[in-house]
TrEMBL record:
Pfam families: Hydrolase (PF00702). NCBIfam families: HAD-SF-IA-v1, HAD-SF-IA-v3. Gene3D superfamilies: HAD superfamily/HAD-like (3.40.50.1000), Putative phosphatase, domain 2 (1.10.150.240). It comes from Ktedonobacter robiniae. It comes from the Bacteria. This is HAD family phosphatase. InterPro entries: ACAD10-like (IPR052898), HAD-like_sf (IPR036412), HAD-SF_hydro_IA (IPR006439), HAD_sf (IPR023214), PGP-like_dom2 (IPR023198). SUPFAM superfamilies: HAD-like.
């Protein structure tokens, strides 16, 4: 059966890390500012990060919990979140984004991304992903995250295709394996040029 639909991940595919923020160590720097031990910020906030990734809380609740758990004032919370979103959104992988755009209208295209509450707004402001494709599925809006098979089944339903009609590009091997188990043509994204070549080869072989 021919491939009719191409689905891309965001982090590590359409977005690349902001090296400067990774090198600085966002949490490590804030732990110093707040007088916390190394790793303590994430330890205190881990349940909230998880809830936000599954859409089980609002951004307002995240901010409230930061105040309670980290004793941060509103100004500090806003500053941390600005830096966090800069790290989270990284920088646009321009060659990959250009290639993704070029697939329309020959193919139906979509984005499937593990995400955090607020991601749709932040990434749309920066990169206008909604204009690149036909559908965006953020896992925090669905309450299911990759590699749970249900998120791939949901994606197929939303797009109106069978698994074998879909090509999926992701940088995480577990996510790829889960997609392949359902019959989806799943490809690993490592180096950008090679990933683009692999997608083109797969599409050519499944016309």
């Amino acid at each position: 059966m021919a491939i009719s639909t191409v689905v891309f991940d965001i982090g590590g595919v359409l977005e690349l890390d902001v090296i400067e923020l990774v090198d600085i160590g966002l949490d490590a720097r804030w732990e110093q500012r707040l007088g916390l031990q190394p790793g303590e910020l994430n330890q205190r906030m881990e349940p909230i990060w998880l809830a936000g990734s599954l859409g089980e809380c609002t951004e307002e609740h995240v901010h409230q919990e930061m105040g309670k758990r980290l004793s941060m004032n509103q100004e500090q919370i806003e500053e941390y979140m600005r830096e966090m979103w800069d790290w989270y959104c990284g920088r646009l992988n321009v060659p990959m984004a250009d290639f993704f755009r070029s697939l329309r209208p020959r193919y139906q295209t979509a984005i499937l991304s593990n995400s955090f509450v607020g991601a749709r707004r932040e990434e749309q402001q920066r990169y206008h992903f909604a204009e690149m494709c036909d559908l965006i599925i953020y896992t925090h809006e669905e309450g299911i995250a990759k590699p749970d098979p249900r998120i791939y089944e949901l994606t197929c339903r939303r797009l109106g295709v069978r698994p074998e009609e879909m090509l999926f590009l992701d940088d995480n091997q577990k996510n790829i394996a889960a997609a392949q188990a359902l019959g989806i043509h799943a490809i690993h994204c490592g180096e950008t040029e090679q990933a683009i070549a692999d997608v083109q080869a797969c599409l050519q072989a499944n016309m």
